[in-house]
Amino acid sequence: xxxxxxxxxxxxxxxxxxxxxxxxxxxxxxxxxxxxxxxxxxxxxxxxxxxxxxxxxxxxxxxxxxxxxxxxxxxxxxxxxxxxxxxxxxxxxxxxxxxxxxxxxxxxxxxxxxxxxxxxxxxxxxxxxxxxxxxxxxxxxxxxxxxxxxxxxxxxxxxxxxxxxxxxxxxxxxxxxxxxxxxxxxxxxxxxxxxxxxxxxxxxxxxxxxxxxxxxxxxxxxxxxxxxxxxxxxxxxxxxxxxxxxxxxxxxxxxxxxxxxxxxxxxxxxxxxxxxxxxxxxxxxxxxxxxxxxxxxxxxxxxxxxxxxxxxxxxxxxxxxxxxxxxxxxxxxx
Length: 334
Prior knowledge:
Strand order of the largest sheet: 1-2-3-6-7-9-11-12
Structural class: alpha/beta
Shape: globular
Number of domains: 1
Oligomer: single chain
Catalytic activity: Hydrolysis of terminal non-reducing N-acetyl-D-hexosamine residues in N-acetyl-beta-D-hexosaminides
Order of helices and strands: EHEHEEEHHEHEEHEEHEHEHHH
Number of strands: 12
Number of helices: 11
Keywords: Glycosidase, Hydrolase
Domain Glycoside hydrolase family 3 N-terminal: 25-298
EC number: 3.2.1.52
CATH superfamily: Glycoside hydrolase, family 3, N-terminal domain
Largest sheet: 8 strands, parallel, barrel
Distance between the termini: 47 Å
Pfam families: Glyco_hydro_3 (PF00933)
CATH architecture: Alpha-Beta Barrel
């Protein structure tokens, strides 16, 4: 197995992808809107990925947050609210907001599990900051660390209760960034004292099964490298001060915050301390470059991967209708 999570080009595996994935044996796969046509097609695709990998629990990821970040959309799949909806309810009824977030996550899990997806890149634990770029914006669970942690924990629990692994992101915090890392490299020059606010939700949820790094430079910790490429940020901050020991993946290698060839990007995030490198585009030439730059997944990374997937091994499927009814009744209080 290689320490890679890879995308694919379209709604069905091509012969070239089958041969490549069989040879490379990636740790997991990630799906986007280009891969999702309808439930029947998507279930066949995820079943095919499991058969190809030979692992019933192979991670199959998606970004299904709600609002503008949703790979599954109507008419075949329901819309879900943004993180901001739960933050607003928290202002007037914190416990109701927590239960609404948990119910929402159970409904998300029911939707995903029905089509064979077992990992959702959620929750965001980025603390929303004044002046921060709107790339986080209404996706955030609030602007207070305790609120973000409470709603994030409920989201993780709801996903797990429905048989889906959650991914906390974007470590160690994207809320202060004034640029979109999809387009350019953000730089955060806050001092260490200020950054404690950003770390706090991640520290409270340090036992999360999976996490994702931020392609953001934090000058207080490493002025030369973004978090995904920084041994200091990953080793001292994420693994050390936060205390996170779950599976750590990079954000997408294809984002413009990173520079250089794709092989160098993949080797760089793994050398910095990420357990797996995430490559999303499904472009075969890029994937070949990435695969050519990595070796076999290290023992610690494989341990973390197996532990993360084991958290949902015995989880029942959540009842979608019940979860939606509970969520909507609670959100109506806001």
